[in-house]
């Protein structure tokens, strides 16, 4: 059975059992602060498990895109571990329970209409005390007792060990199903049934309280089950992954075979290529923080595997087509971003390979130092520096070190890595089912009704107040430092979403006034954040809610302009310029989009011209709420990586723009007034950003530009604006001449100081030590000092520093004979640079550094001298 067929059979089976088929959630859930990536099928149903879901939605089935990095070292090594994978699941929210979950699992696995696995190949496990599950397996299903195993809370409970160790919250026993084709000698876990039936409160005993509504959460690994059905030794040999492994082998010049020596490395490349392609498609590009950092590390691991197999140029990007080919049936949208994903990966690969080449110099120095000292281990601090500065994964360093019969100090490396562990984790540290102060409010009142599409004012009622992280009945502290949260039953305030900032305004009533400084959304509740100006707020009070209408108008202009800008970009640079994010404020907007290079001035002018032509056309702006599939058929554009409801709001402008959008808009493009592009920059690999202004902000910018032009004319004595370029050229030539004269004078002054510096220099073990801070000049002056001071008969070690353009510039240099004595300019300048909050390096005899804090230059020079004294002392 093919993998795509298995996925469809599973979803169809549970649809027939009354479960609602739901689409996969996004890989990076933006509305869930507890995880970086979606790790399991149940994550998108947290509201339903907490009793906050829709009453007509009591059971579901999905095939969920997941990403986990907890077992990354096992990827490619074991038959079943992946980073990206799909999890088949069926879920019940107070609907069916153990009997149905177990019976249906058995039916799906063994019935010839579905998977048709021989019953004798299957075994089950249950929690030690779960007599109900044991009875269902033994008495209802008829599974022999020898094929039902009991396990403790660390094996068959979710979360593992919860009864004894916590955390508090919903939990329950599990029943796992295993497949074996050899009579039990080797087993594969293919399905885990979780029965969330308890609420854990406090320590044992009697800490598991039955839930009023019991839930089902199951997970079946798609790739793992496909490997069972296809009779192959590993997930990587199934119909959707083996072609990817073959393609990965071809890119590194190796023929892929599961048992080949290079098989593991090629499987890792294939796995990571699939993971990063799916992530970048959804807008999570390689970067330095959280999920972006994980994507960068996965890409680097793939590149390094290829590097160790001899591939020294970018190659992972070429696997994107193969990934799309195996993923396009369930996720056809991945075919729409192929070029931008390839560009992003290729650019990141090239940058990293360049870093590797620079890092090899440091690695070779580490090897030379080890050989000289007779050490068999490369120091952990140096290995960590290779990792953190040059991106060398420790596996690469270990492989390269082995070629020189050396090992690495892994213990020290692991200690240093631990300091950064939270950054590289595939998840955050919050509880999976953590309940905030708004959960109870949501259960009592449901959501807030949003009125803001039609009005900027309303009569409402306070249904909740949040102060210092908890629900309160009243607030009377005027000017409280921390913002207060006010929840209304109905509100005209737009809560921040989709790149549009939250509204501001006022809430007023009988004797009180509350200033709203921001509006946020928690599930369906609109939370007005701000400060009490006078009086007292009470739950149940009637209020007048009024949005700052002028600010809202500016936001509407800017938001409609982003849609116009999106269309203009498609006209000028093509359909691949898909949106990757935006921020919309009053008459200010920024728009992020896929593009591999900067737009030319001509392209920017054309984009701006198209935008203002469409503004002047006065096209109608209309909105409709449609079923999501109908909206897609109409060609409405969606933001990849964004989660949308079953019914979506579609905004259309004339006949040129049709987009999914929940923001506030104009009714006519002419109301934008005027749009001016302010800047175009890179914000990430393959991602560009355009910033623009509309309305009054655009007019103000034009006036400011005119005023600056007049001031420049006056300052440069240019009769007309068109005379400015020529006048500037004349002044630049004059400045160049003066700088040249000043440099010559400075160098003469340097030569005159050399004898004095040598005369005053401290001497240690026959070496002149010099620390000096010139008062004028630039970096070239520092090099002049170094050249003249080292060109002496006696050995010299020097550290120089000065302020250049508001920053600290440092230079260390030693006579070449001192390098043989272990005195290194690079080590000196590093020690000095720490004092000025900077860093740097260079050759053993000459090294430079920079820093942010020039006020600490005297301390930096002292640190440099201290290094020289220590090095000379130990060397002697």
From TrEMBL:
Protein localization: Cytoplasm
Biological process annotations from GO: alanyl-tRNA aminoacylation
Positions of region (Disordered): 834-855
Any one of the GO CC terms: cytosol
Main location: cytoplasm
Protein name: Alanine--tRNA ligase
Species in which this protein is naturally found: Stratiformator vulcanicus
Domain (Alanyl-transfer RNA synthetases family profile) ranges: 1-704
Reported cofactor(s): Zn(2+)
Enzyme Commission number, as recorded: 6.1.1.7
Matching InterPro entries: aa-tRNA-synth_II/BPL/LPL (IPR045864), Ala-tRNA-lgiase_IIc (IPR002318), Ala-tRNA-ligase_IIc_anticod-bd (IPR018162), Ala-tRNA-synth_IIc_core (IPR018165), Ala-tRNA-synth_IIc_N (IPR018164), Ala-tRNA_ligase (IPR050058), Ala_tRNA_ligase_euk/bac (IPR023033), DHHA1_dom (IPR003156)
The organism's place on the tree of life at top rank: Bacteria
Residues binding Zn(2+), per UniProt: 559, 563, 661, 665
Catalysed reaction, written as an equation: tRNA(Ala) + L-alanine + ATP = L-alanyl-tRNA(Ala) + AMP + diphosphate
Role this protein plays: Catalyzes the attachment of alanine to tRNA(Ala) in a two-step reaction: alanine is first activated by ATP to form Ala-AMP and then transferred to the acceptor end of tRNA(Ala). Also edits incorrectly charged Ser-tRNA(Ala) and Gly-tRNA(Ala) via its editing domain.
Coiled-coil portions: 695-748
């Amino acid at each position: 059975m093919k993998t795509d067929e298995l996925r469809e059979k599973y979803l169809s089976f549970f649809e027939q059992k009354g479960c609602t088929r739901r689409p996969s959630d996004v890989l990076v859930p933006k509305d869930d602060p507890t995880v970086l990536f979606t790790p399991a099928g149940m994550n998108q149903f947290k509201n339903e498990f907490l009793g906050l879901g829709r009453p007509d939605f009591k059971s579901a089935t999905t095939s969920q895109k997941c990403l986990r990095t907890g077992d990354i070292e096992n990827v490619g090594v074991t038959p079943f571990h992946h980073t990206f994978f799909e999890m088949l699941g069926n879920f019940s929210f107070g609907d069916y329970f153990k009997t149905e979950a177990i019976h249906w699992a058995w039916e799906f696995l063994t019935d010839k209409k579905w998977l048709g696995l021989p019953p004798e190949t299957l075994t089950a496990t249950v929690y030690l005390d779960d007599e109900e599950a044991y009875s269902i397996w033994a008495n209802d299903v008829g599974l022999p007792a020898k094929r039902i195993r009991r396990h403790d809370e660390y094996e068959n409970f979710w979360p593992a060990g919860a009864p004894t160790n916590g955390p508090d919250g919903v939990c329950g026993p599990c029943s796992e199903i295993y497949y074996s084709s050899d009579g039990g000698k080797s087993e594969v876990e293919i399905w885990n049934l979780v029965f969330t039936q308890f609420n854990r409160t406090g320590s044992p005993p009697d800490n598991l309280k039955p839930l009023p509504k019991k839930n089902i959460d199951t997970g079946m690994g798609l790739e793992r089950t496909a490997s069972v059905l296809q009779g192959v030794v590993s997930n990587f040999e199934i119909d959707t992954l083996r072609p990817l492994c073959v393609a990965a082998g071809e890119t590194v010049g190796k023929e892929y075979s599961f048992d080949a020596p290079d098989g593991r490395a090629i499987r890792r490349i294939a796995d990571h290529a699939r993971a990063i392609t799916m992530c970048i498609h959804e807008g999570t590009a390689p970067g330095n923080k959280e999920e972006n950092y994980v994507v960068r590390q996965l890409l680097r691991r793939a590149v390094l595997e290829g590097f160790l197999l001899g591939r020294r140029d970018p190659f992972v990007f070429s696997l994107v087509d193969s990934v799309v080919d195996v993923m396009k049936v369930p996720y056809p949208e991945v075919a729409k971003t192929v070029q931008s994903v390839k560009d992003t990966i290729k650019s990141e690969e090239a940058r990293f390979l360049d870093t590797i080449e620079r890092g090899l110099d440091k690695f070779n120095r580490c090897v030379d130092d080890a050989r000289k000292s007779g050490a068999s281990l490369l120091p952990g601090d140096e290995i960590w520096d290779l990792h953190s500065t040059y991106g060398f994964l420790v596996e690469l360093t270990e492989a390269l070190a082995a070629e020189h019969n050396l090992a690495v100090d892994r213990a020290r490396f692991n200690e240093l890595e631990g300091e950064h562990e939270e950054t590289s984790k595939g998840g955050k540290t919050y509880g999976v089912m953590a309940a905030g102060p708004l959960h109870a409010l949501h259960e009592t009142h449901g959501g807030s009704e949003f009125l803001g599409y039609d009005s900027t004012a309303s009569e409402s009622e306070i249904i909740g107040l949040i102060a210092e992280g908890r629900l309160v009945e009243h607030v009377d502290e005027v000017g409280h430092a921390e913002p207060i949260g006010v929840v209304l039953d109905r509100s005209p305030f737009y809560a921040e979403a989709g790149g549009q900032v939250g509204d501001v305004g006022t809430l007023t009533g009988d004797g009180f006034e509350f200033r709203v400084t921001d509006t946020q959304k928690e599930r369906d509740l609109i939370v007005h954040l701000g400060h009490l100006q006078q009086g007292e707020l009470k739950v149940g009070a009637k209020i007048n809610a009024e949005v700052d209408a002028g600010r809202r108008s500016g936001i509407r202009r800017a938001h409609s302009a982003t849609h116009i800008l999106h269309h203009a970009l498609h006209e000028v640079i093509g359909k691949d310029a898909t949106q990757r994010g935006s921020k919309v404020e009053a008459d200010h907007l920024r728009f992020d989009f896929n593009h591999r290079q900067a737009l030319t001035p001509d392209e920017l002018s054309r984009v701006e011209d198209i935008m203002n032509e469409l503004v002047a056309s006065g096209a109608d702006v209309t909105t409709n709420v449609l079923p999501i599939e109908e909206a897609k058929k109409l060609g409405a554009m969606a933001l990849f990586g964004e989660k949308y409801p079953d019914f979506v709001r579609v905004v259309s402008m004339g006949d040129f723009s049709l987009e999914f959008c929940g923001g506030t808009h104009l009714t006519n493009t002419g109301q934008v007034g005027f749009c001016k592009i302010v800047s175009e920059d890179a914000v990430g690999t393959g991602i560009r950003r355009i910033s623009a202004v509309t309305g009054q902000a655009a007019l103000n910018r034009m006036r400011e530009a005119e005023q600056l032009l007049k001031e420049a004319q006056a300052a440069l004595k240019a009769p007309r604006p068109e005379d400015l370029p020529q006048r500037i050229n004349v002044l630049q030539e004059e400045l160049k001449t003066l700088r040249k004269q000043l440099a010559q004078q400075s160098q003469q002054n340097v030569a005159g100081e050399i004898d004095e510096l040598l005369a005053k220099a401290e001497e240690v073990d026959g070496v002149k030590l010099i620390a000096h801070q010139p008062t004028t000049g630039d970096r070239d002056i520092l090099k002049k000092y170094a050249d003249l001071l080292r060109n002496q008969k006696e050995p010299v070690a020097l550290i120089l520093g000065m302020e250049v353009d508001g920053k600290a510039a440092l230079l260390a240099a030693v006579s070449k004979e001192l390098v043989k004595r272990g005195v290194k300019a690079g080590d000196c300048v590093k020690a000095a640079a720490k004092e000025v909050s900077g860093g740097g390096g260079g050759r053993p005899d000459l090294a430079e550094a920079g820093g942010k804090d020039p006020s600490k230059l005297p301390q930096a020079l002292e640190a440099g001298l201290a290094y020289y004294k220590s090095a000379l002392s130990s060397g002697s």
